[in-house]
Amino acid sequence: MTTPHIAAEQGAFAPLCLLPGDPLRAKFIADNFLDDAECVTSVRNMFGFTGTYKGKAVSVMGTGMGIPSCSIYATELVRHYGVKQLVRVGSCGAVQPQTNLHDIILAQGACTDSNVNRQRFRGFDFAAIADFDLLRKLVNEAERQAINTQVGNVFSADLFYQPDPTVLETFKRYGILGVEMEAAGLYAVAAEHGVSALTVLTVSDHIERGEAMDAEERQTGFSRMVKLTLDALV
Ligand SMILES: O=P(O)(O)O[C@H]1O[C@H](CO)[C@@H](O)[C@H]1O
Ligand SMILES: O=c1cc[nH]c(=O)[nH]1
Asked: What is annotated as the active site (predicted)?
């Protein structure tokens, strides 16, 4: 049985699924990091692939942008395809002055201006946190490979184009490391279904300084994050 948004055979996904926002990043990851990768779904051009990394099955699938889109794919992957580890590999805008382009952020927690988690959680504020075991594995592997990471809170925004730029001052004061658009929703989907989730982010731009990666830099920077994630979790 397929789902409204994923047309794959039962058993087509591995228990570990990497989740970039961009479906073409999913293809890039499948082409460059997985052996014997096969495209298992392409509904709406939201590509999903399964292959192996160091002999172990791994899947990768795009989620689209924003919590609603990401939540659809994460929910269907868990409910219908048995995915147990949802690991977002995304990009974010940096908030803190000491953070630079290419830095890797591990989203220990995710604040949000989205209302979706309140809808799930009876109107209460849900503390959207990463799975500790996945987080610990990333931290340990990064230390082993001497890759610097920043671990802490991110902000999952509904709006990419913030109408009130002064919100950045609040983010800065509260120690938010990066702004992206999915982690808080992904963590709540995982909690609802009793599976594990983590968000690993590469800093693609610095919001205050107006710096941004060019196309080639994006690919190189994301590759470092993807390799680290796969080495840590496979
Ligand atoms: O690069 P991805 O994973 O898509 O992540 C970030 O980029 C998109 C916005 O450009 C949002 O999805 C945001 O979370
Ligand atoms: O969601 C995002 C992604 C990159 N940079 C941002 O400012 N926001």
From this structure: 205 (proton donor)
